[in-house]
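Researcher: Go.
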Amino acid sequence: MNNVRLIARLDIKGPNLIKGVHLEGLRVIGDPQVYARRYYEQGADELIYIDIVASLYGRSKLTEIVRRAAHDVFVPMTVGGGIRGVDDVRDLLRAGADKVAINTAAVRRPELVSDVSRRFGSQCMVLSIEAKQQAPGRWEVYTDCGRERSGVDAIEWARRGVELGAGEVLVTSIDREGTRKGFDTELTRAIAAAVPVPVIASGGFGSDEHLRDVVRAGADAVAIADALHHERTTLAAVRSAARGAGIAMREV
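Model: Structure:
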């Protein structure tokens, strides 16, 4: 088991940090800059920013948020939402992002994954998958902030995305997102077994045991949002508990 990364996830709508359940019922939490700085100071290995409604409105306002964060935050930042082409990727990287996470545009135009990988390197291209279970052992990819069915099998799409050049997979369980009931370990295990690149599990963290379970299912990194935003735990506490359970963590 390699050193597991702890990632703070910040979902964005306009200028605000928001949070919902099952990617719905979005509520304003506060200023993303304040929370990003807090998580950096707590020892986050990385940050993930997702403009959660960008695909719906055909635009993203993350560039300025990322530019501001780059002045105070000195860990890798992955940015997603509303990315439609390599020009969008270039603008985000220039603003301070290290990687981009692409979901909707990649499903609609898979060659975008290859375009980004060739232009900026596979380490920059994170395939973002929002998945909902349809039957035992079967999950479907959803687009547009979990609103639209794609008809695409999540495991097959993860495999294809990596073949196209994705260097990492961010998998968000729509069923578990915001519920605090634990990650979808079966989904994580299936994707981790299908691809040779790191897998980030997102959606459902509610306790230290949930992190332990999803890491044992194959997650290389864990993204946490709700529990951090509402101060039910800290990254330092999560890291300490994970080490106590025998999980090798990144040094901070």
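Model: The chain has a mean pLDDT of 93.
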